[in-house]
Design a protein that fits this description.
By secondary structure, this protein is an all-beta fold. It has one domain. 0% of the residues lie in helices and 44% in strands. It has no helices and six strands. The chain has a six-stranded mixed β-sheet, with no helix packed on it. A hairpin with a 2-residue loop joins strand 2 and strand 3. The chain is globular and about 35 Å long. It starts with a strand and ends in a 6-residue tail after the last strand.
Length: 72
């Protein structure tokens, strides 16, 4: 079975300084953007730029950042 691929484009930082990305099915946030940690990508509640992190993306998902992952 082929893992799901999610392409994310960086669009800015929310009011908690978390990187927000646009994907093909809405907005996503990296809740732990430290460069020495793997990304922890979640959907944004109600697809709102300032929304709380909602559902975690499954660990088996292949994430492609465009142009790159925003890290601290």
């Amino acid at each position: 079975m082929t893992p799901l691929t999610l392409e994310l484009t960086f669009i800015g930082l929310d009011s908690w300084s978390r990187p927000v990305y646009r994907g093909n099915s809405g907005l996503y946030v990296d809740v732990d953007p430290r460069r020495d940690r793997p990304p922890e990508i979640c959907t944004k509640c109600n697809n709102d730029y300032e929304g709380e992190p909602d559902w975690s993306v499954p660990e088996t998902t292949q994430i492609v950042f465009s142009p790159s992952r925003y890290t601290l």
